[in-house]
Design goal:
Length: about 280
């Protein structure tokens, strides 16, 4: 019997669809879902596929959770150090005693050439000689020589603040060394003073100066490294101002004395406007 080709093609297609459905069911072992739509409709086929996909997804086992990350063991707690023992502070270093004043040696002499203005005296020399006194102190004898004569006198004791200084006038510059603290430093204040021959016992003269520099000074006795000090003498009497004079001098530690001095101004205990002195000889 001759068969219709169109029918055969339709029948073959149906067999192929049926074989595919059987294979699908066999592989996934899925019973035919209950569908609400009638067989053969496109909606039923689409719904059938959606339902099948949902069921297969539901059948897959849930993914195993990742194992927890390892937790680091806690760091060991350091034992607290025992409290530090109290340490007693070291005793503060004692301040060094003040440096001694300059000193001169017994048996030595210093001779100076002096010029005054106005020239009340000419060809002036002052010679100072240090001697040992009965009490062990150093006394200073002075020879004042000029064109018209000579005077000798005991200047006083070479020690700071000694009462014998109260009657000295310009020749008293030899005593300045007793008041200078050693070692001398640039910028150091220099202060000293004593009584002057005023009408009152409260007549005082005071030097206020400063160590300015170290200089190389050349005088008739030679060249010396000397501390240059400059300042002002102020005179008072019963608290009242009586005069002022400027004074600049160079002190050489090598010879324990002033090697050059310059004084300007009129003061109650000096009549000269200017007095200059330089060291001529030391023995």
């Amino acid at each position: 019997m001759k068969q219709d080709p169109l029918a055969l093609a339709f029948f073959g297609a149906a067999l192929a669809v049926l074989a595919g459905l059987l294979l699908y069911v066999f592989v996934f072992k899925t019973p035919e879902p209950k569908l609400a739509a009638s067989a053969g409709s496109p909606v039923r086929a689409f719904a059938f596929l959606q339902e099948l996909i949902r069921e297969k997804l539901a059948e897959k086992p849930a993914a195993k959770p990742a194992p927890p990350l390892p937790v680091a063991a806690p760091a060991p707690v350091a034992k607290s150090a025992p409290p530090a023992r109290a340490v007693k502070p070291a005793p503060a270093a004692k301040a060094p005693p003040p440096a001694p004043a300059s000193t001169v040696e017994a048996g030595r002499s210093w001779r100076y050439a002096v010029v005054v203005e106005p020239p009340a005296w000419r060809d002036i020399t002052l010679t100072y000689r240090a001697q040992r006194e009965a009490d062990g102190s150093i006394g200073v004898l002075t020879d004042f020589l000029h064109a018209k004569g000579k005077t000798n006198f005991h200047l006083g004791i070479f020690a700071p603040g000694h009462p014998s200084h109260e009657n000295t006038r310009f020749p008293g510059f030899f005593m300045y060394g007793a008041y200078l603290k050693q070692p001398l430093n640039v910028g150091d204040a220099v202060r000293f003073g004593w009584h002057w021959q005023g009408r009152s016992a409260a007549s005082t003269k005071r030097y206020e100066g400063e160590m300015k520099s170290w200089d190389e000074v050349t005088v008739p006795a030679g060249t010396f490294r000397a501390a240059m000090i400059e300042g002002t003498w102020t005179y008072t009497e019963d608290g009242q101002f009586r005069g002022r004079a400027y004074e600049k001098f160079w002190y050489a530690p090598k010879v324990s004395q002033i090697v050059k001095i310059m004084r300007f101004g009129i003061s109650p205990d000096e009549g000269s406007k200017q007095i200059d002195a330089e060291l001529v000889e030391i023995r």
